[in-house]
Amino acid sequence: MAVGLSQRVASLSGRVQWVVGVALLVAFLAVPQVYGSYQTGLAVELLVLLLFAASYDLLIGYTGVVSFGHALPYGAAAYAMGMAMTGRPLPLIPEAGVSFPVAVGIALFAVVIISLITGWLAFRLSGVYFAVLTLAFSMVGYYAVFESTEFTGGDNGMLVTRPDLLGLPLSDYVTYYYFTLWIVLVSFLLMRRLTNSPFGRVLVSIRENEDRARFLGYDTNHYKLAVFVVAGLFAGVAGILQGLYLNILTPNMMYWSTGGDALLVTLIGGMGTLWGVIFGAVFLLGARELLTGFIEGWPIVLGVVYVLFVLFVPDGIAGFLTDRSRSAWDVVSDLRGSDESDES
């Protein structure tokens, strides 16, 4: 499914993709100027979900690795940042805490270590066993922060405040929105660069046929571990942004259902595209926002919709739109060809 979709998306004109990208950027830039604080807050959540799901797409969409524990780096980075900033009892951390940039560096370093260890252990298995083990790691993280009241606040959560950064008051919702937008944009460009690099092409070859990639001389386990760490890093950035936006960190950030959101967004948007998660995230947040106000059992309705997507739109919204765009372009090309033949 993802193989054909990646090839079809790649066949689209680069100019068309850039036009769509610029149009989306302009739309995001205009959000705080057009809407109020509530809608801008929803846009922040949308951006964070985009980044979180795109990081997961590196695993499932480009490498064919199904992980049920993607919430672990997402929540671990947020908690590591929070503990470093608030001066929780940690080795080498002063009682008064550290500055925001240093705390972010500590958080991302922690995510690298966690991803290396869990990935090294999990990739000893494959298939469903790998997926279940990653789920187990995520739940270990969940219960660790839930029970460690002294370090994490336990079920009550950990309060964090948005600091000033280079003179910019991140406590202001408009400032924080643009801060989040630029972080997500840079992250998307980096992931785009990665997937178009020789490293990214090896990942795709692993997804298509790991035995063949191994036969060609690639150490597939090393490549999978590397992308596991990279995906964890970007998930960690998303977790930090979400924690700062909410001003509180809770154990649910590491719960399996949080990682499930990334999986659902990727499936609905289209795997192996990166930009498909935009449609998936808009659909997920939009459906939740609409259904929660009208239907008491909205999760059941949403679950039925997901099943219908898998059955009838297996390539996701991105695949559906790509096929329609190519069909329209083929019609235009045929019309041009017939006109030229008539003139001759």
TrEMBL record:
InterPro entries: ABC_transp_permease (IPR001851), LivM-like (IPR043428)
Keyword Transferase assigned: no
Keyword Nucleus: no
GO cellular component labels: plasma membrane
Matches recorded under Pfam families: BPD_transp_2
Domain of life: Archaea
Coiled-coil residues: none
Keywords assigned: Cell membrane, Membrane, Transmembrane, Transmembrane helix
Transmembrane segments: 16-35, 102-123, 128-146, 173-191, 225-250, 262-285, 297-321
Localization of this protein: Cell membrane
UniProt topology in membrane: Multi-pass membrane protein
This protein's name: Branched-chain amino acid ABC transporter permease
Organism: Halomarina halobia
